[in-house]
Amino acid sequence: MKLYGFTPSPNTWKVRALAAHLGVALDYEHLDLLKGASHTPAFLAVNPTGRTPALVDGDFKLWESNAIMQYLASQKPNTLWPDNARTRADIMRWQSWQLAHWGKESCEPLIFNRLVKKLANMGPPNEAEVAKGLECFNRDAAVLDAAEAAVRTMLDDVTALKNTGSAKSGQD
Hints:
Elements: E1 2-5, H1 10-22, E2 27-30, H2 41-46, E3 54-57, E4 60-63, H3 65-73, H4 85-119, H5 127-171
Parallel strand pairs: 1-2
Antiparallel strand pairs: 1-3, 3-4
Helix pairs in contact: 1-3, 4-5
């Protein structure tokens, strides 16, 4: 399988990190977006949107980072993409939320204004976009914090039940 990506991109990072974690071998080709590499006829034949990452597996071409991650995770059994419809739906919910809200509204405006514009000599940050990005970041971080707290509570309850069950078993 061959992955085309822009190395600094978080979407490329997450695909490469998942592949490494699962031990899925990928040939990697860096496309320099700042030099227009994703808009060449050869790459547009892989992904007509001209965005990275994109994956080629034989004659199968796939783009969108979360779709690529789901495809890679489906290559062999693992706990990150279990064979359970509800668990997969929950994973897909959070991946969709990440793209629509955390990434698009919160992180992308901040990364673009505070990092990309500086690296690409595109002028100073748009402070109104930065302020809106920070507002969305704080709103969305609260959603993540609440979800993490709920999961931690659930895990604590499961651990307590296991400890109670093993303690009772030990007394029998």
